[in-house]
Amino acid sequence: MTSSDTTSPAKPFLDVLNGQRRSTPPLWMMRQAGRYLPEYRKVREQAGGFLDLCFNPDFATEVTLQPIRRFGFDAAIIFSDILVIPYALGRSVRFEAGEGPRLDPLDTPEQVATLSRAADFGKLDAVFEALRRVRAALDPKVTLIGFCGAPWTVATYMVAGRGTPDQGPARMMAYRHPEAFSTIIDVIVENSIQYLLRQLEASAEVLQIFDTWAGVLPAAEFQRWSVEPTKRIVAGVRAKVPNAKIIGFPRGAGAQLPGYVEATGVDAVSIDWAAEPGFIRDRVQSRVAVQGNLDPLVLIAGGAALDRAIDDVLANYAQGRFLFNLGHGIQPETPIAHVEQMVKRVRDFRG
Ligand code: CP3
Description:
Blueprint: H1 12-17, H2 38-47, H3 50-54, H4 57-71, E1 75-77, H5 84-88, E2 93-96, E3 100-103, H6 109-113, H7 125-137, E4 143-149, H8 151-160, H9 168-176, H10 178-201, E5 206-211, H11 219-240, E6 245-250, H12 257-264, E7 268-270, H13 277-285, E8 289-294, H14 296-301, H15 303-317, E9 322-326, H16 336-348
Parallel strand pairs: 1-4, 4-5, 5-6, 6-7, 7-8, 8-9
Antiparallel strand pairs: 2-3
Coproporphyrinogen III binds near residues 30, 81 and 153.
Enzyme class: lyase
Subunit structure: Homodimer.
Pathway: Porphyrin-containing compound metabolism; protoporphyrin-IX biosynthesis; coproporphyrinogen-III from 5-aminolevulinate: step 4/4
């Protein structure tokens, strides 16, 4: 046990973001509310569409709490989606069953000229209401996470109108029409700041910025479209709430993680499973808390491979400030018994 380790934490997850190391790392999973849970699928059927689920405070509260009840995680993440920002900007956003999101593409300067600058946050009232209800229902030691997508990642869906394997349409637009593209980014930056502040007001305690597609960008473009806009969001939130705790997740950033941490000022960084442990310890965990990074596929595989992979993650990172998580979201086909196996193994660990 180190001198910074407390034995009776008020909130294990927040303690780590506030500079402590926990001998048993706090634990949650990205995309922990979702289709791998039968109780989620049941509510999802009742709700109808995916956005109907997000925008009904009863349903959104219920599915946010489901994984906490089942697994006793240290953090709850509010049930919503990164694409509610384009939705509140008046873009058409639909989720087709089994196909992922569909938006009206925004890939010419002419279309960008018609883009609304200010989101209608009234359209997201249900998210704020669900945050208040979840906070009231949660054990005080469980931390409540609000989130948004990073501007680059949100823009990739707005430009292409859908997910693509390497987000080529947004990369192409950024090369061909950098001014129009930077208008999209600016609109997302401004509205994400407002959105995150409203989530804090509605009782979110930590914010996570998901940059799922950071890893497809060349270094200079990563700096311009991922790092700089994220830095503006962090600064914009802290201008109003100076001690706001923020986790960044620039998936696939690899060797650019130290630069991302330095420039953006995030309190913690979520790392994917391809990260190199020695590099992360020396260059990243020495400055901020680290979150991650079990491969979601080994959680599907289970068995001895899962035990080994969990032990590796713990051996790699648990001596420093660490939050146990996956390297990306949990997949729908994951057996619940494997999640239980992971929870038990992490809970039994003392580093
Ligand atoms: O449990 C949680 O983590 C909270 C809720 C949450 C969702 N989406 C719910 C969701 C969070 C944090 C997100 C973030 C999100 N959404 C990201 C960034 C993180 C990541 O996983 O990369 C991205 C890129 C999106 C956009 C998005 N939403 C896609 C590409 C899809 C379809 C693919 C998929 O995973 O299903 C969604 C739909 C979505 N968002 C679902 C859920 C539970 C599935 C919808 C359903 O029930 O049919």
